[in-house]
Design goal:
heterodimer, A: alpha+beta, 3-stranded antiparallel beta sheet, 43% helix, B: 6-stranded mixed beta sheet, 22% helix, globular, disordered N terminus, disordered C terminus
Chain lengths: 472, 201
Amino acid sequence: MTEIVIDPVTRIEGHSKITLHLDDRGEVAGARFHVTQFRGFERICEGRPLQEMPSLMARICGICPVSHLMASAKACDEILAVEPPEVALKLRRVMNLAQIVQSHALSFFHLSSPDLLFGFDGPSDRRHLFGVAEVNPQLARDGIALRRFGQQIIERLGGRRIHPAWVVAGGVSRPLEPDQRDDILASIDDARAATRRTLEWYKHRLADWADEAAVYGDFPSLYMGLVHENGDVAYSDGLLRVVDGSGNRVADDIEPRPYWDYVGEAVEPWSYLKSTYWKELGYPDGMYRVGPLARLNVIDQLGTEEADVELLEYRDRLGRHPSSSFHYHYARLIEVVHCIEMIRRLLESSDILERRVRAEADVNRTEGVGVAEAPRGTLMHHYRVDDDGIVTWVNLVIATGHNNLAMNRGLLQVARHYVHGERLDPSILNRVESVIRCFDPCLSCSTHAIGSMPVRLQLLTVDGKVVDELSR
Amino acid sequence: MNEAAQCEALVVGIGNMLRADDAFGRVVADRLIGDPRLSTSRVLSCHQLTPELAADFASSRLVVLVDARLAGGRPGSLQIYRLDDHCRAARFDHGVEVSEVVALCEALYGAAPPVVVLSVRAERLDVSESLSATVAEAVQGAVETVVSLLDAPWGGELKADRGTRAGHEGHGDIEQDAGICEAPKWATWQMPGDDRAAYDA
């Protein structure tokens, strides 16, 4: 057995490596996506006051801090047993939608568009943002514009682009001011135009990527996401729905709270990333996907006019429940259309400037679960506190962990298709990496291995020979 | 944030607020936000440089970047230099340098404004929410320096008449004497109490 190692994996958020295991004939027998960084927030939070949790948890990630704010605040709401004012829920939604726009823009434009523009076998020295700027400056400008759009909304609401502390237990810390609302509304048309241009560009070229779509993580799986009662997509509230590859509802309208009844968490010794699975099907057969592709598969409709027109076209082109992970890219762009429309709708609602934006309470429960849709998929925060509101236990189930089994499966599919023999050329390396990019994993968010931290300790001689080894 | 569609100058304070003196640029920026002397300017306080800043650069006639540096001069000393014309159009990887933001600005928006970097020599960069006493003393000097820079007669065609100075490739790469710039041809201005573009706070 020979091992090929790709380390680090590039153009993703966080640190990881890939190993490919070849059999005696030089064919790929196995593939693994290893997350090599560890954060440990579940332990760091123990002993902290509950009120600190949203801001503390936002520090998990510089890309999607708002998602952690959302899930954390919801878990805290549950522990306080409060219902935030309606306007606070709307304002939280605006910030969450803005973050999805900026995060999707980062994934699509900055990380993946070089592959889409130059081809997955294209010259590696051009596959970066400067290469995109040179060949298609409008695409690069639109990427920058959309990311700024999302970041500036977060900054206007929360005071800063990264790690805003505005979402708090019971609501938000400050109401929206009229000039803030007007500034955001004034920027919407440009963001919408940038999204439209990009979506048209993408659809026009979709057929060019048929080969990739066929092997980039194309397999049946379950899909999970939050859905409103009327079948609209839900990012900040709603109930969980799980469908299979044919669209059959495996579970519907289920409260996220007892997630432990239906979601299992497995730990492998070769990664700090947990692998979650649908318990009913066991591990690893209970593989499911979350995030843009999964959300579009589980919902009936998005719930805004322009995005739903795009969703219909998407389903006409790809089928009702597309199974290729390559289509995360397309799904991501449609979600951006929806998020921009929904931001406008929320900001134009008559009560958006109301001043009472926070419900106050003390600890009324000792356990709480908060669930929201992060850009990459369903995010769960689960806390226990003592009677004084001091955190005693934390469990985080992160979108990238939900996708872990599917990422490894997609990696194996791509590796088997493109890797033959013991040599890798740069284009193959990029193909192996790019299937991971479809999922847009966020590794700093997701390295929360349950139980004991997996560690492998090797004792090597000076010439690299392993003389002893211990594993935990 | 002071914001306008097209502004005279953009001041960007860069740094990590949890890394002691690395926060210098942001402390200066926070001091400048709301300063009436910067009524036609924008001030941003940023954790790090990102590609999106290229769009902010493009809508400004001058960019002043305030940052901390690791070497050159004694702790607390301020240095100032103008970014070289020949910005390095490198590939973005995990970090972004100011020269790359400028190059991206030029590539996407056709031109880039002159960029002046004002930096303080850090004393400590450990985990802390406070500046060292030495560097904290330099904050007000930096604030006044930024204001005096914005008062300089920058003119309209900023890219065309940019001066050059060899040896300054970009952010974090400043020679020991780099701050001792001769008065550049693209602008004439005086540092507070000195005729040089560098001084000890």
